[in-house]
Write a structure and sequence with these properties.
247 residues, TIM Barrel
């Protein structure tokens, strides 16, 4: 944990940046709302900049590291620690923190006791409860169903919950939901735009494993109203709030 903390420094906004491999990593938070339009939590997104201040695509950066597992794991764990530190200092610190991770990395980190200890230690260090953290498993292929299942349980044993991200897109399927029993199912924008029946089917799938539902990609009041009427638990999208720097 010390080696990661040594790479996280205060920035001009009064929060923190991660400095790694000559690059600067920043946090951005997008709120998630409940049915009363109170903020339930925030999804943490990473913004990466080079020495000249040019933006770098995070997906491209992490994909280029994916065949270097040790560096890949360190970078993701460092970014997660950055998010935790900024979240702890933000106005959202009493809410919930959603952090994206690829299935491959989830399988690696969630079955690594020292990585879990680091996460739990970081949460306690900044005065947060593990139950505030939710790891979102992205819509990518995994490698081992056994490792994914054990990873979910290992995190749950430490009060850290999981979510399936972008349900209905690529690998975020009914089969993955029924395999992993996540606490949350985030339903992809494509399902939200497809109409009432697909939304009802997604909610039914989530409820079959006692998961709560989050409607993603809400871009207007009509869509928000429809999602509320259909029975989603939580709501996220540019109509409600765009990702912003920590406040």
């Amino acid at each position: 944990m010390e080696s990661i903390l040594s790479k996280i420094h205060p920035n001009e906004e009064g929060f923190y940046s991660l400095h790694l491999d000559g690059l600067r990593f920043e946090s951005a938070f997008q709120p998630i709302y409940d049915k009363t339009m109170a903020i339930y939590g925030v999804e943490c997104l990473v913004r990466i900049f080079d020495a000249q201040g040019h933006s770098i695509n995070p997906g491209l950066f992490f994909s280029e590291l994916s065949d270097q597992l040790e560096r890949f794991s360190f970078a993701i764990l460092a970014a997660s620690t950055l998010h935790v530190r900024n979240f702890a200092k933000s106005n959202y610190r009493d809410k919930h923190l959603f952090i994206n991770t690829s299935p491959l990395l989830f399988e690696e980190l969630a079955n690594n006791p020292s990585a879990i200890d680091h996460l739990v230690g970081a949460l306690h260090y900044y005065g947060l409860a593990p139950s505030q953290l939710i790891y979102e498993i992205m819509e990518m292929a995994g490698e081992s169903e056994r490792l994914a299942v054990s990873g979910v349980q290992n995190l749950l044993n430490n009060q850290i919950r999981t979510a399936i991200d972008d349900f209905g897109s690529h690998y975020s399927t009914k089969e993955r939901v029924r395999l992993l029993y996540p606490a949350f199912v985030k339903v992809d924008k494509s399902i939200i735009q497809a109409g009432v029946s697909p939304m009802q089917n997604a909610i039914a799938c989530a409820h079959s494993v006692n998961a709560l539902t989050i409607a993603e990609g809400i871009e207007d009041q009509q869509t928000l109203n429809q999602c509320i009427e259909v029975g989603f638990d939580y709501f996220q999208g540019y109509y409600l709030a765009r990702p912003t720097k920590p406040m």
